[in-house]
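R.M. (postdoc): so does anyone remember the format we settled on? I'll just put the C-alpha cells first.
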C-alpha cells in the first residue's frame, strides 16, 4: 500500500470514528425514546458506520478500532439513560440493601408506606417502571446495586455514573476474554470488533445501564476455562453467571453433552451449588417466593417484541376470544426448553466451533419462544456468534431497534406489522446463512483497500 493511500484510508477511518462518536452523543445525550424516528435513524447511521469500519478497516487498523470501542463507551459515562428506565430500579434496590432492607421482601409501594429510608423518595419512586412487582434481579447484580447504594446513598446521577463505570470495567474484561477465545480457536482477533464496536452493545450496556454485559463476561469466562480443560473453574464461572442473570442455565445441557454424563453432571452440580450459595446470601423462604412470583409474572403477563409468541397469541385470540398469554407463555417456554435439549444433545465429540454454534442456536431458540425480548437481550447472541460462522445475531441487534416504536405513546403500544417485518428479515437472513454457510460480513480473509 502506497503512503498516500495509507494516509487516505486513515483519514476516512478517523472521519468514520468521529461521526460515530457524534452519533452516540446525539443518541444518548440528545434523544428521547419517544422520538422513534430519531432513535431509529441514529441507530441506522451507527450500524452503517459499524459495517464500514469493520468491513474495510478491522484487519489492518485493529488497534485504532479497539481504542475507538473503549472511547465510545467512555463518551457515554455521563449520559442519563434515555432509552430505558430500568436503572432507577437498580438504584432503588441498592439503597434498600444499603439500609438493611432486603430488596426482595417488599413491593416499592409498600416501602413508601414505611418510615423514611435514606435515598428512597417519591421522586425516585415515580421513576420506577414496575412499582407493583417484586424485584427480579439475582444476587450478583444485587451486590453491585448494594455497592452503589453504599457509595451514593442520595445522588442519583452519581449512582448512574458509577454503575456505568462498573459496566465498562467488566466490558474491558469481556474484550480480553473474546480475544483469548479467538486465539484459542485460531480465529483472527479482529472478529472481536463485531462485539466491541456493535452499536446496540455500546448504547444498551454503557449508555442505558444494562447488566447483560456482566452475564456475558461470566459466560465467556466459563467457556474459556472449559476450552482450557479447567472444568471446576468453568463450572464456578457459569454458576456466577446464572446468579447474575438466569439465562446461562440454558447452556448446561450442552455442556453435559460436551463433557459426557459423569463429568457433565458434576459440572452442573458445581454450578448449581455456586448459584444456590449466592442466592442463599440474600434469600429466605418468603423472598424466594417473591422472586418466583416475579418470574411467573414475567412469563405469564409481560409481552414485548416477541416473535413466535405473537403469532400464537393472534391465533389464540381469534379462536378463543382473549389473550392467552397465561397459557401460551409457559407452554412456549416448555417447547423452547425441549428444543434446546434436542439441540444440545444432538451429536457427540463436539468441537470448539460446533460448541459455540450450538450455544448460539440454544440462546436463539430460547428468545424466539419467549414472550419478551428487549433490545439488550441480544447482546449475548452477538457475543456468542463471534466464534461461529453465523452472524445473523449481528443483523438481529440492528433489527431489534424497531421495537422502540412502541414508546411513542403512553401506554406503550407496539406496531405488530413492524415487528413482523423485522423478524421476517431476520428469518430471511438466517435462512440465507444456513444455506450458504458464508457470511461476507465477517470474511476473515478481507484485506484493506
Amino acid at each position: 500500500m502506497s503512503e498516500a493511500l495509507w494516509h487516505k484510508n486513515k483519514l476516512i477511518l478517523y472521519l468514520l470514528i468521529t461521526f460515530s462518536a457524534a452519533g452516540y452523543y446525539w443518541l444518548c445525550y440528545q434523544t428521547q425514546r419517544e422520538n422513534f424516528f430519531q432513535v431509529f435513524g441514529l441507530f441506522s447511521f451507527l450500524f452503517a458506520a459499524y459495517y464500514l469500519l469493520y468491513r474495510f478497516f478491522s484487519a489492518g487498523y485493529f488497534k485504532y478500532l479497539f481504542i475507538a470501542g473503549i472511547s465510545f463507551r467512555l463518551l457515554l459515562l455521563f449520559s442519563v439513560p434515555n432509552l430505558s428506565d430500568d436503572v432507577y430500579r437498580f438504584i432503588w434496590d441498592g439503597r434498600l440493601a444499603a439500609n438493611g432492607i432486603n430488596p426482595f421482601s417488599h413491593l416499592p409501594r409498600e416501602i413508601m408506606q414505611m418510615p423514611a429510608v435514606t435515598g428512597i423518595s417519591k421522586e425516585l419512586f415515580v421513576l420506577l417502571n414496575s412499582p407493583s412487582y417484586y424485584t427480579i434481579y439475582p444476587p450478583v447484580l444485587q451486590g453491585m446495586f448494594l455497592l452503589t447504594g453504599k457509595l451514593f446513598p442520595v445522588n442519583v446521577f452519581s449512582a448512574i455514573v458509577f454503575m456505568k463505570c462498573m459496566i465498562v470495567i467488566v466490558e474491558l474484561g469481556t474484550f480480553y476474554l473474546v480475544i483469548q477465545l479467538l486465539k484459542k480457536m485460531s480465529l483472527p482477533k479482529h472478529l472481536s470488533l463485531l462485539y466491541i464496536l456493535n452499536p446496540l452493545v455500546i448504547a444498551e450496556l454503557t449508555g442505558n445501564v444494562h447488566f447483560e454485559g456482566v452475564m456475558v463476561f461470566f459466560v465467556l469466562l466459563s467457556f474459556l476455562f472449559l476450552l482450557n480443560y479447567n472444568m471446576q473453574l468453568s463450572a464456578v464461572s457459569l454458576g456466577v453467571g446464572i446468579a447474575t442473570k438466569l439465562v446461562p442455565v440454558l447452556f448446561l445441557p450442552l455442556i453435559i453433552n460436551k463433557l459426557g454424563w459423569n463429568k457433565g453432571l458434576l459440572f452442573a452440580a458445581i454450578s448449581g451449588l455456586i448459584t444456590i450459595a449466592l442466592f442463599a446470601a440474600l434469600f429466605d423462604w418468603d423472598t424466594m417466593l417473591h422472586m418466583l412470583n416475579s418470574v411467573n409474572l414475567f412469563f405469564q403477563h409481560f409481552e414485548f417484541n416477541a416473535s413466535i409468541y405473537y403469532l400464537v397469541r393472534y391465533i389464540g385470540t381469534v379462536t378463543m376470544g382473549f389473550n392467552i398469554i397465561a397459557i401460551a407463555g409457559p407452554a412456549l417456554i416448555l417447547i423452547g426448553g425441549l428444543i434446546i435439549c434436542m439441540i444440545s444433545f444432538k451429536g457427540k465429540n463436539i468441537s470448539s466451533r460446533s460448541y459455540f454454534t450450538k450455544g448460539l442456536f440454544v440462546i436463539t431458540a430460547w428468545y424466539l419462544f419467549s414472550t419478551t425480548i428487549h433490545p439488550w437481550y441480544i447482546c449475548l447472541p452477538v457475543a456468542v456468534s463471534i466464534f461461529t460462522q453465523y452472524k445473523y445475531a449481528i443483523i438481529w441487534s440492528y433489527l431489534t431497534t424497531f421495537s422502540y416504536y412502541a414508546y411513542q405513546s403512553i401506554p406503550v403500544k407496539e406496531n405488530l406489522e413492524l415487528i413482523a417485518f423485522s423478524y421476517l428479515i431476520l428469518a430471511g437472513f438466517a435462512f440465507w446463512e444456513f444455506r450458504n454457510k458464508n457470511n461476507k460480513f465477517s470474511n476473515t480473509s478481507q484485506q484493506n483497500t
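R.M.: ...and that's the designed sequence above, right after the C-alpha cells. Also worth knowing: The chain has a mean pLDDT of 91. Residues 364 and 381 are 7 Å apart (CA to CA).
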